[in-house]
Design goal:
Elements lengths: L6 E6 L4 H9 L4 H9 L1 E5 L7 H10 L3 H4 L6 E2 L6 E2 L11 H4 L3 E7 L10 E5 L10 E2 L4 H6 L8 H6 L1 H23 L4 E8 L1 H14 L6 H20 L6 E5 L3 E4 L2 E4 H7 L22 E4 L3 E4 L15 H14 L1 E2 L2 E2 L1 E6 H4 L11 E5 L3 E4 L8 E2 L5 E4 L3 E5 L2 H4 L8 H12 L1
Parallel strand pairs: 1-8, 1-9, 5-6, 5-8, 11-18
Antiparallel strand pairs: 2-21, 3-4, 6-7, 9-21, 10-20, 11-19, 12-13, 13-17, 14-15, 16-17
Bound molecules: zinc ion.
């Protein structure tokens, strides 16, 4: 790579390979189309599980969850059933910008809150709570506020009123683009990573509007991508010949047909019980329990010595996992199998934090959305979401084909992260 080459990484949260290609081909994303013609483009595997906190942590570190320590959006305090929300302080592997030779500008990457001291500018993404802990250096906050910068859209609005959600999405994107433009010239950066996350929210709430051309919000859906494409075109026009451009998503998306409650399955098959007279929740797990799940479908064996009500002896763990595999493999709803992949931890994770991970992780088959809520009264349900994450069709685009040559057939977010690390390090 040339000495003065810079690396630009544009994140598009949740955008599936197929949608990107379709929007490039149908004129919704003409700039992206132009870039694709010169670039390497491939479907990419997400993390396991296929959720943003885990996937982006893999992208920015180039490591798997047993190395970076982020296994889900929620996790358990050690040796307990108490829930915690891991954040950037819990990331055990360094993000690429800590290894970079030069300065970095990092904007809106999920799971990077609270920000820390680093060489450059960092504005954290979902879930960022307090603006004072979301911007490094903090003296940039007034400038961002003058742009009406917003850390995120209000998902609460979407739950009550989709029109209001769309009205919120637009100024959030406008301010994000302003910040990107401002920071582009603010320092002499070596790596620049803006991430668009409204795409994920849009697809959760309005995947039906994408698929149905007659949907009231179909054009609003396309407009959001048109506006992002304009911002991509603007960035592309400012690249020099030596600069590397990577565009990627952290997972894909598809239509959500049914929610499936994994803990309901475990309870109805006798693997999970709650103390008599108590509500079905983590704190109330009773000692006959053999396994329980955390979102979206991480399965934990209720090991003796590890959990307060742990009952499965070390020698019985493999038999328990085998029973669970049989149960999961046999589950069908509407005559279709629910789980596409049933992974054991040794098959998917390796590293110093392996013990903190789930014993198994399930990936759903088409249309099924797996959930770890314990209070569900039925195995199958349907909430307000119309779209769900997918594992195998995130995308990865690289403007220089020679750089992509070492990636192999089915690259994952970890491979993308390794590549980024090698480019900036
Ligand atoms: Zn999402």
């Amino acid at each position: 790579m040339a000495e003065n080459a810079r690396t630009v990484i544009i994140g598009l949260d949740g955008v599936p390979f197929g949608m990107l290609k379709k929007f490039a081909q149908t004129g919704v994303m003409p700039n992206t189309s132009r870039i694709i013609q010169q670039a390497f483009l491939t479907p990419m595997r997400s993390s396991i599980p296929e959720i943003s906190s885990v996937a982006w942590s893999s992208i920015i570190t180039g490591t798997n969850p047993a190395d970076h320590g982020i296994f889900g959006f929620v996790d358990l305090h050690p040796d307990s059933y108490r829930m915690k929300f891991p954040n950037f302080n819990n990331l055990k592997s360094p993000p690429f910008w800590n290894l970079a030779k030069g300065e970095s500008v990092i904007i809106n990457v999920p799971s990077t809150y609270p920000v820390k001291d680093m060489n450059g500018v960092h504005i954290s993404g979902f879930v960022s709570i307090d603006i004072n802990k979301s911007v490094h250096p903090t003296f940039l906050i007034p400038e961002l506020e003058s742009m009406e910068y917003r850390l995120d859209v209000s998902a609460e609005k979407a739950h009550s009123d989709l029109g209001m959600f769309l009205e919120d999405l637009d100024p959030t994107l406008t301010a994000r683009i302003k910040a990107i433009e401002y920071l582009w010239d603010y320092i002499e950066w070596q790596s620049f990573m803006p991430t668009f996350t409204g795409t994920d929210r849009l697809m959760h709430f309005l995947f039906d509007a994408y698929e149905d051309e007659n949907h009231k919000y179909h054009n609003d859906f396309l407009d959001h991508f048109r506006r992002i494409d304009t911002a991509i075109g603007d960035i592309y026009s400012k690249l020099t010949e030596n600069d590397v451009l990577i565009m990627l998503s952290d997972h894909g998306f598809e239509k959500l047909e049914k929610d499936v409650y994994v803990n309901h399955l475990l309870a109805s098959e006798g693997f999970l019980t709650f103390k008599p007279g108590t509500d079905p929740k983590l704190d109330n797990i009773d000692s006959p329990t053999k396994a329980f799940a955390l979102d979206p479908a991480r399965i934990y064996i209720n090991r003796k010595g590890k959990y307060p009500e742990g009952s499965v002896e070390a020698g019985d763990i493999q038999a328990c996992i085998k029973d669970l595999e049989d149960l999961f493999a046999s589950l069908q709803i509407y005559g279709r199998k629910v789980f596409k992949y049933i992974y054991k931890k040794e098959d998917i994770y390796a590293g110093p934090y392996l013990d903190d991970g789930p014993d198994m992780v399930l990936i759903a088959d088409e249309g099924f959305n797996l959930k770890g809520a314990m209070s569900a009264k039925e195995l199958v349900g349907k909430g307000p979401f119309t779209g769900k994450h997918t594992y195998e069709d995130a995308f990865l685009l690289i403007n220089k084909k020679d750089i992509a040559s070492g990636l192999g057939d089915q690259p994952s977010v970890i491979d993308a992260g390794k590549l980024i690390k090698s480019l900036v390090g």
